Every structure is written in structure tokens, then in C-alpha cells.
Predict the structure.
Amino acid sequence: MHLEEFAEGHSIWHRMDPRVKILGVLSMAVVTAVSDKASALLFALGFAVCAIVIARLDTRQVIIRIGVINGFVLFLWFFLPFTTQGEVMAQLGGLDVSREGIILALTITVKANAIAGITIALLGTSTIFDLVHGLVHLRVPQRIVQLFFFTYRYISVIHREYLSLRASMRLRCFKPRTDFHTYRSIAYLVGMLFVRSLDRSERIYQAMVLRGFSGTFWTLDHFHMRRSDWAALAMMVILVVAQIVLQVSGGIL
């Protein structure tokens, strides 16, 4: 499981200081999350698309990752139009479809895709070590930095454990069906995954203590802002201000 696939590249996002990208993503994500005007949300979505194009990322992999997010958003379209009170636009299967429900579902969809696209284009083009290093420079509390680093780092480790267990089940000719044996086997799989994760975490902790880890990540090389980074930071500020202006003056979606 390669979690840093987008970090391999030579675009302007790849060369940008991680601190600028972290601040840019946080500010754009917050403004997008609280926006409810069509102009502001479409502006954020347009920037996300442009950022992905500039980053020259693998289109197929980007679609797969955004598709996973939209898989969760899709469930909202099955409930919000029918459960949100407002002006009835149509009836489907005896249920009223409200205009406000459709607007709410569309707003959430645009927000989710815009934030996901911006995150992939900016943070995805940095390695985990650069992001952690950037968080340290931004004075983020050590506990939060460590939690982020270890969570990100060991997702792939847990995934490898899962693949190993699944391969063992396949070697024993396991075929999933809708019966009690399948449910019990999957429950055993999840249980063993938790047990192996706990065992691995204890071994990692002991190895870190043995090497004198005291809760601080020491870095040998430090980031230095270049002219291009200052220019990128200024651009981020302009984009955020522009989105705020569109939110204040634009029409409701």
C-alpha cells in the first residue's frame, strides 16, 4: 500500500515549502467548509481542479481516491432530499423530494470534492516526513504531530497484516458467502488484525525506548523560505481572501 504515490513528482507543488502548503490547505478547507454561496464553493472547486492539473498527478489514482469520498457522499443523496423539510419539487415512491434537501446534498458534495482535491494536490505532493517536519516548524503540539505521524506511517503496516491474513484464508479455500461460517471467519479476521496490531505496537514501542526515544523527533535539516515560497504564500492569501469576498457577496447555492 503506497501512501506517498503523489509525492513523487517535479511540479511547483512538489517543490513548495510544506509549511506553506499546510497553511494553504487549512485556510482553504476552513473557508470552504463554512461557505454556503455558489460562487465561493465553485471557486474552491475550480482551484482544486487547477491544483491537481498543475501537480500533474496520475488522473486514474486521483479519480479512485475522490471516488472513495464520493461513495460516502452518495448516501446523503438517498436521505437528505427526502428528509429535509422545504419546498416540494417532486414525489418519488410516495416520498417528497424537497428543494432544500437537494441543495444541501449538492453543497456537501461540492465541499467534499473541493477540500479533497486541494488536500490531494497540496499535501499529497509532500512526503510524510516533510509534513511532520512542517508541523513541527509551525509549533503544532508534539503529541498531535506524533499521533499524525504514527497513524499515517502504520496504516500501510496494518494493511500488509490484513493482506497476509486474507492470503492465509484463501489458501484454506475460503470463499465468502452469506452464511454464519463467513460471518464468523470475517470476525476472526478482524480480531486477529487487532491482536497483531497490538503486538506490533508493543514491539515498536520497546524498540523506540531501547533507542532512547523521549517523545521528540529531532531533525537535521531545516526548511528555509525561498522567494518562490513567499510568492506561493502570498498567492494562497489572495485566494483565501477572494473566496471570502465571494462568500460575502455571492448568491446562495
Notes: Residues 180-210 form the longest helix (31 residues).
